[in-house]
Write a structure and sequence with these properties.
With 205 residues, the chain is mainly α. It has 11 helices and 2 strands. It has a single domain, classed as Up-down Bundle (Rhomboid-like fold), CATH 1.20.1540.10. It is 68% helix and 2% strand. The chain has a two-stranded antiparallel ribbon. A hairpin with an 8-residue loop joins strand 1 and strand 2 (146-147).
């Protein structure tokens, strides 16, 4: 509870994402269509704002719950580790950067769309891992905790696999690029993070 109260920006993002996603899903589908990222129209109609707005909507309730649970378990602690303004930069820059490969790949595809906070949340998860690589992550139906560093590699492997079998608007490749941008941005924003990570392995530079 203390970590939530000490992480105002994570709390604001958490609440706003849930409210907008639920409203778009159940009350105003037009908002969903307005906020979704469509690379074809991003360039032709200059809808650059959708690089951000698409991160506040989700494909369905399961997609929203999975992302928000992951956010809840990692983001509030991360803001305390990395700092308030650093967290905001990490979250939104990763949200944009993680979508860019798909944007350029599908810039001539009229039907392709992408939505969800997956890239930004992946960045949060992997940023957290730099500070706590051996903390235990608990997944539903698995009775034992998985070390965060092991979870990271499994997570990346799944994202690469899922990106090749995408049948909805969930951008699985954003998970992968979000993870990469999360690590890089964390090291830039807080250089001590790499030393903290290495010290966990008893490596001193």
């Amino acid at each position: 509870m203390n970590s939530i109260l000490l992480s105002p920006f994570a709390l604001i993002i958490f609440v706003i994402t849930i409210i907008i996603s639920l409203y778009a899903l159940f009350f105003d589908n037009r908002l969903l269509n307005s906020f979704i990222l469509r690379p074809y129209y991003l360039f032709r109609e200059k809808k650059y704002y959708t690089l951000i707005t698409s991160g506040f909507i989700h494909a369905d309730l399961n997609h929203l719950i999975f992302n928000m649970l992951t956010f809840f378990f990692f983001a509030f602690y991360l803001e305390n580790y990395i700092g308030h303004w650093q967290f905001v930069i990490l979250y939104f820059v990763s949200m944009i950067v993680s979508d860019l490969p798909s944007v350029f790949k599908n810039k001539d595809n009229e039907v392709y769309g992408s939505l969800g906070a997956s890239g930004a949340i992946s960045a949060v998860v992997f940023s957290f891992i730099l500070y706590n690589p051996f903390s235990k992550i608990y997944i539903m139906f698995i009775p034992i905790g998985i070390p965060a560093i092991l979870y990271a590699f499994c997570y990346l492997a799944y994202c690469i696999y899922a990106s090749k079998k995408q049948y909805n608007n969930v951008n699985h490749s954003a998970h992968f690029w979000g993870a990469i941008s999360g690590v890089v941005l964390t090291i830039i924003l807080d250089p001590r993070s790499i030393f903290i990570f290495l010290q966990k392995f008893n490596i001193n530079l």
